[in-house]
């Protein structure tokens, strides 16, 4: 009897150990290179590709998973034009399929970068297939916390371990009973009867079984812990937020099909903290004559007190349109558009996603502190031809020579340092 229990104890310990290692290995696999790939993918590929659906280029999830020739993929991603010029049959086929739209050449990417991108696309596509998530923008939620994959794997491994242990417990109990009670031969149906009578007693016994109680508690704690963890990560994160706007303003038509520059309507982004929403007068530059019959455009007329018949404005009837704000940082965080758009030279799409393809705008990035910090860690500052950095180098030289430096030399009399 002793030996049975001992063997069982050792066995359940090894099952737990293996489960633990499997979990660790799995989470390392799911996050390792894919995390690096994600950053590159978001910075360079999302303007034209989505993982699960066609954008300007093909849906990368299925294509990159079906195409197993990584060498070819690496060639393609680094320099697709070279492959096309060399008349590579596969390259020509895709190129023609997509009306010769032409993908950007990414000479700056190393083979390692491409491997990371592929790892990210493949794992993300796998997760998407395992747990399809409806709703715009949620495909890229990986940055908001632990990946769902890891949590599902954890739960799966624990459930499996418990099942194995329960089954073994049962087998051992039966064997022990067989050996102790009926030293002689036991008929099969007799054994069944014993089990049937013992059903309620079995539950009681289970409650007394320390191993079982321990695992039930462990399971409960882990489930509750994961739930709290995920909830806390996602508190106040509104990625994918897409409120209903008073006028259904289609960005895909204006910024996409018609190619109106973002600057035409959001000029503030280039010269101030706020990107700003255009006034309806900007819309009237075109909509005085374009689509005058549309009910959506009539909302513009109503808001301005404009009468399309007489073509006159009546300011007494005017009332402002109440756009619902989508992106909103808390007041204690300072974010300046011109610093990122003008000075750093970032594209709007880096942070706001492919707005030119959105029927209605939604919040593309999580806007968490982690998101800001990660980009600040990964993005090199362009110091060339920037008076601010040239001044900094000059001040640095003065300090090195042991000379005195006034605050004014460090930019302390620039208006923006004290006013915003
Ligand atoms: C300017 C838009 C654009 C950007 C940016 C872009 N692609 Fe593409 N990509 C395309 C188009 C369009 C095609 C289809 C082939 C063609 O027309 O050249 C394509 C095709 C591909 C294919 C071939 C798919 C297949 O069917 O085998 C891969 C892989 C790919 N892109 C990966 C990437 C990756 C990775 C990045 C980011 C580093 C990226 N692309 C960035 C437009 C783009
Ligand atoms: C013809 C004018 C126009 C153009 C061009 C335009 N937008 Fe907009 N944009 C608007 C209006 C109006 C709103 C407010 C309504 C809405 O949210 O859909 C808006 C809202 C937004 C928002 C959401 C603001 C919020 O509430 O947080 C973002 C982000 C945005 N635009 C980015 C862009 C980008 C990037 C481009 C260029 C690719 C662009 N817009 C081009 C008019 C324009
Ligand atoms: C540079 C010219 C231009 C500007 C500026 C412009 N639009 Fe448009 N807009 C158009 C054109 C052209 C169409 C119609 C495309 C078509 O034929 O479907 C359109 C279509 C629309 C539609 C869809 C109407 C429907 O019933 O399909 C809405 C809504 C709209 N615009 C709202 C606005 C708003 C709001 C603004 C100001 C923030 C604005 N537009 C600024 C040119 C413009
Ligand atoms: C580095 C990331 C980043 C880039 C690049 C960026 N934005 Fe933003 N954008 C934000 C953040 C963060 C907010 C929220 C700001 C807040 O709540 O104070 C925002 C808010 C907005 C809003 C809402 C209204 C406002 O004025 O805050 C609009 C419109 C907008 N952005 C348009 C643009 C356009 C157009 C561009 C390109 C010219 C652009 N953004 C480039 C991060 C970015
Ligand atoms: C896509 C990349 C990216 C994201 C996302 C981003 N930033 Fe930046 N940020 C930059 C770069 C690049 C600079 C350097 C600009 C320069 O050359 O001065 C910068 C500079 C700044 C500065 C000036 C720092 C200094 O030393 O003066 C502040 C403040 C700032 N960012 C705040 C934010 C906040 C807040 C967020 C998140 C809401 C954010 N940034 C998100 C790329 C980013
Ligand atoms: C070292 C910080 C600092 C710098 C640099 C600075 N200011 Fe000021 N400024 C202030 C303070 C503080 C006040 C408020 C003084 C008061 O209320 O008496 C102020 C007030 C003002 C006012 C008056 C506002 C009002 O409502 O009365 C204006 C206008 C102004 N500043 C413009 C500028 C301009 C333009 C520049 C750049 C050339 C600049 N400031 C640079 C700190 C600064």
UniProtKB/TrEMBL annotation:
InterPro entries: Cyt_c-like_dom, Cyt_c-like_dom_sf, Multihaem_cyt_sf
Entry's Gene Ontology molecular function annotations: electron transfer activity; heme binding; metal ion binding
Bilayer-spanning residue ranges: 149-173, 212-230
Gene3D superfamilies from the UniProt entry: Cytochrome c-like domain, Cytochrome C3
Cytochrome c domain boundaries: 32-125
Keywords from the UniProt entry: Heme, Iron, Membrane, Metal-binding, Signal, Transmembrane, Transmembrane helix
The protein, known as: Mono/diheme cytochrome c family protein
Naturally occurring in which organism (per UniProt): Mucilaginibacter frigoritolerans
